């Protein structure tokens, strides 16, 4: 790849290397997306979410099982999340539509149509609402978003398992919606050079503290990682942890980025989940786990810092949108934009592997990247 590549974000004209969609369009499918914290799905609750442009009801039975289904009644299109969870003899727990009382089991099969009298059709069991595979792991709820709703693929891999989930539930959770396609949100998240300009705080970085950096990168499952290293000297926030912190930063498809810090026997996990709401909105959820004593004291300051970072990134997204609406060609450079290029390569390989029914082959090779920040 040349030092300056003005065509990197666009699909190649070569059919052998063409991406399934242009940069900033479409989504990674047949993948697990973070939807909600498990603790926010109460027994008996029905909550409406939008994932990848699809209305999804996420609920939990009174027996504790989490489930997900399309949040549209096939009768008259009322949202099922506006109904209630009920139990009738022989049906188990079902979701009752608020409009005409049609009831659906948590696997999406219709259990009853109350308005029918004996001898009338259709048979309720022949009617289905789309259901989504759902997994609850490490206190997080993941939903499998398939590529073909008419012939949905069963999950062939598990949701990610994150290192450093210690000390119980997350100590801090902050979320914000960015007016951005997930591609631009991901690339902005992994961009190593914007910090001194977008995130100028006395406790973080400034343009005066910029210096050359060299970081080793390695392939990881469905992604890559900046191998474990000592934090940069101009990243002042790490100093409050004391000792000799060592950090590793990992990215994984479809949109997970986490930083796992070890300070002796103590750990910190900063997890960012990027969940597409629809083509022009992405939810950024930032979560922290830690068994380090400093989190008990610094939590209010950390919360302020996380909110400041999200607002600064969100403001820059809004500025970027002013230019993106003219659909310009973008110039990506080495090495600061190599992670963005890897993201595109990972997406292409994901689609190819599934289309060709073969194992995923990670296109990232071990290398050292250099930039100034």
Briefly, what is this?
This protein has helices at 182-190, 195-198, 294-324, 338-355, and strands spanning 4-5, 31-37, 46-51, 54-60, 66-70, 84-88, 92-96, 103-105, 110-112, 134-137, 140-145, 172-178, 212-220, 223-229, 246-252, 256-263, 266-278, 281-290, 332-333, 367-372. With 373 residues, it is α+β, with helices and mostly antiparallel strands.
Give me the number of helical elements: 4
Sheet with the most strands, sense and barrel status: 8 strands, antiparallel
Strand order of the largest sheet: 12-18-17-16-15-14-13-20
Mean pLDDT: 87
Radius of gyration: 23 Å
Could you explain how this protein is built, in words?
A hairpin with a 2-residue loop joins strand 3 and strand 4. The two termini are 22 Å apart. The radius of gyration is 23 Å and the shape is globular. By secondary structure, it is α+β, with helices and mostly antiparallel strands. An 8-stranded antiparallel β-sheet has the order 12-18-17-16-15-14-13-20, covered by helices on one side. Strands 6-7-8-9 form a 4-stranded antiparallel β-sheet, with no helix packed on it. It is built from 4 helices and 20 strands.
